[in-house]
Amino acid sequence: MQPPAELAARLERASAAAARLRERLSAVHLGAPELVERLIAALLAGGHVLLEGPPGLGKTRLLRALAAALDLRFQRVQGTPDLMPGDLTGGDVLEESGGKRAFRFEPGPLFTQVLLFDEINRATPRTQAALLEAMAEQQVSVGNASHPLPQPFFVAATQNPIELEGTYPLPEAQLDRFLFLLRVPLPGAAALRALLRGEAADPAPAGPPLLDAATLADARALAAQVPVADSLVDALAELVLATHPDADGAPAEVREAVAWGVSPRGGQAALAGARALALVRGRMHVAPQDLRDAAADAFRHRLFLRYEAQAAGASSDAILKSLLDRANLR
Q1: Which of 118, 153, 158 is nearest to 133 (CA)?
Q2: CA angle 223-40-235, nearest 5°?
Q3: Among 266, 293, 279, which Cα is nearest to 45's?
């Protein structure tokens, strides 16, 4: 175990590197500092993100800028109903050489480091499921062989919450693979004026990357070591239980509106995200606000409402806000 002073020095260096990355991305994607912050935190926590927002808000531009700033390989896949699993994973190709035939694996677009799966809910469930192994185990199995993915491997999938005709909602197992569900906001007046004037930075500027591979790997390892108080862990456990309608002491709104609450994996995601958020924000420990913010993004897509509650206008965000306001996060 390394001395506290050495760990603190490494945390400070990693936090400074994250601050440089946040500054670069905020110059590319104007008017959304919270989105940029959460995106970096998800990357440092080793998770993946689901970005929800209508077209034209700069999601692709933001992900290209992230990959360019870290000198990572970038691939974009467009979700369509005719997209097949092999179009993502790749497959075995029969080749003939010297009179002999043999299969050679030809990797698909999943073999990258930053993958943008645009409009994932337009792909069929069969194709969506092709991501499950890649996101959870960092590998792809084709035939009898498993192929490791490049590291780091980071998936950002988008879905349009407005145009739902011809879409396939992500099942619970697929949603649970995403660390955060992040809402992409419409830029405010000042940011919109700057965008129209062409003041946003180039997503792929010339020059060296902000972080090299070793610094990024060290920052990801350090994010998992950011200290968190036992009292915050206890509060998080109580919060997870409070999302379940059949749990003792569940609030009335949860009993009435929620069909299924947050899984233990959701609690782990909130804790990992809070540690990474603390690092991005320059803290040497997890603060209550870090855990509150991470829990909101980690629980949003893991809280499933009853159909009747949805029809009556209930939302997971509103229920989570009420639970977080009552939680002992201090």
Answers
A1: 153
A2: 55
A3: 279
Q: Is the separation of the CB atoms in 79 and 126 below 8 Å? A: no
Third-level CATH fold of 1-203+212-225: Rossmann fold (3.40.50)
116 touches 158 (CB < 8 A): yes
Instruction: Give the strand pairing for 114-118 and 74-78.
Output: parallel
Token representation of residue 283 = 């803290």
- pLDDT tens for each residue of 132-161: 899 999 999 887 888 999 999 999 999 987
Q: How far is 201 from 112, CA to CA, in rounded Å? A: 24
- What DSSP designation does 121 have? G
Q: How many CB atoms lie within 10 A of CB 35?
A: 23
What ranges do the domains of the chain cover? 1-203+212-225, 227-330
CB atoms within 10 A of CB 158: 24
CB contact at 8 A, 303 and 324: no
Distance CA 229, CA 275 (A): 11
pLDDT tens sequence across 44-85: 999 999 999 888 888 999 999 999 999 999 999 999 999 999
Q: Where are the alpha helices (DSSP H) in the chain?
A: 4-28, 33-44, 59-70, 85-89, 125-128, 130-137, 172-175, 189-196, 213-223, 230-242, 252-257, 264-280, 288-299, 307-311, 316-326
pTM: 0.92
C-alpha 327: how far from chain center: 24
Report d(CA 299, CA 254) in Å as an integer.
Answer: 14
Q: Which residues of the chain have pLDDT under 50?
A: 1
Class of domain 227-330: mainly alpha
User: Closest by alpha carbon to 168, among 119, 100, 241?
Assistant: 119
Dihedral sign computed on CA atoms, order 261, 264, 269, 271: positive
- The angle subtended at Cα 191 by Cα 51 and Cα 58, nearest 5°, is 30
As a whole number of angstroms, the distance between CA 248 and CA 41 comes to 33
Note the maximum CA span of the chain.
Answer: 73
Element (H, E) at 150: none
